[in-house]
Amino acid sequence: xxxxxxxxxxxxxxxxxxxxxxxxxxxxxxxxxxxxxxxxxxxxxxxxxxxxxxxxxxxxxxxxxxxxxxxxxxxxxxxxxxxxxxxxxxxxxxxxxxxxxxxxxxxxxxxxxxxxxxxxxxxxxxxxxxxxxxxxxxxxxxxxxxxxxxxxxxxxxxxxxxxxxxxxxxxxxxxxxxxxxxxxxxxxxxxxxxxxxxxxxxxxxxxxxxxxxxxxxxxxxxxxxxxxxxxxxxxxxxxxxxxxxxxxxxxxxxxxxxxxxxxxxxxxxxxxxxxxxxxxxxxxxxxxxxxxxxxxxxxxxxxxxxxxxxxxxxxxxxxxxxxxxxxxxxxxxxxxxxxxxxxxxxxxxxxxxxxxxxxxxxxxxxxxxxxxxxxxxxxxxx
Length: 382
Ligand SMILES: *Cc1c(COP(=O)(O)O)cnc(C)c1O
Description:
14% strand; binds pyridoxal-5'-phosphate
């Protein structure tokens, strides 16, 4: 079966077929009015983002990596400031810290893939022992799970850490019914095509409820602009969302709530029907009563990962490893600070995680096929 219709890992083509008319005409409209930079669609999309998240300010920029570095510039982080970041995440989370000249400090994660509060406290104490200044933290909502928790909040507060949530994978998720974008000092996201809300190129956004920060972020992303185009009050960068991308995102955001529902239904269906038998050692992703996830990825953990992936491939089912190496082991970061208690969970996860196809357009037949193939493989392993 399924040889006729290949299962895509992330299905952007079906989404485009579904939205073709509205997206084509939105792009066409931009071509007609010709305001390719800072066109009216950009502000319209920012207003929609602000309505959707209820964050007071939503400011678009060129990509999710810029969103992080602009946020750190707005918070005045600089050389000698330590910024804590999980070692199990995408490279961009740490790259932004280095780019602004601050000091990245790697912290371990828990088995739910997000930053570990105990490890963070250890790292803060380590930094102080080393004579460094703990300044900020970037909790990453990996695979779409909000990392926001009361336990973390009390640590942030106790140590007066500035908090930037990296919500590149969790746009649309919420904590106790409050959408991400309203927590910490700043929340950033990415509209890279494969993210929960993706455009047809690069894009990003920054959310905050703080008026002064919002003003500074708007200035920094726009060459540090002051009151008018040729007055510059901050050291800035050039980081804009193209008008065409904004026009595309407007159409995609309209159907996003339905897509998010679909992702959650698929994750629940996977969770209820994949049957990890004893010795196959497969762990399904955590879920939480207090949080709605964005399910950027549906990620499972098994010591038999490589074998399971190979067998799934033979059934025509694509899987991907996010991420094969903890960031502290990357060549560029091998000399960085790591929490003294180690990043064992991150290292272990890198050897065991893999993600199954996830997309709002994954049809029932394919979901059932993936589940039945995986269950067969797990049964054979046992
Ligand atoms: C994708 C991603 C980013 C960066 O987004 P870009 O738009 O590709 O720059 C940052 N952090 C995480 C966790 C991501 O997954």
